[in-house]
Input
Amino acid sequence: MRTTLTVTLLGTLVSLPILLLFHAPSQQQRIGVMFPLNWSREQAFSAITSTGNEAIRRGRHPALWVINTPAPKTRTALKQSGAIVLFNPILLEGCGFYTPIN
Output
């Protein structure tokens, strides 16, 4: 299990620069966000909602989320609240590593 998680996270970190090249911001957009790996799911969810964003899906790891962001200003606020990387969510959705928020 630990090996699988390590391989998944390494694959994510290697793929991110490539996916970021194809990430074109718009007014309201679904984006992927990665928080520090030692954060709990509750800490990440709190950071998402406190900045005016809506959580859409959560990743297998508590640090990975897909969110709806209404404006570029909230993306800046996400970075200030602790987000490490904002990325194209196809990385999570395409690989099936997500759980819809009910």
Observations:
- The mean pLDDT is 77.
- Residues 37 and 61 are 8 Å apart (CA to CA).
- The domain at 2-100 is CATH 3.30.70 (Alpha-Beta Plaits).
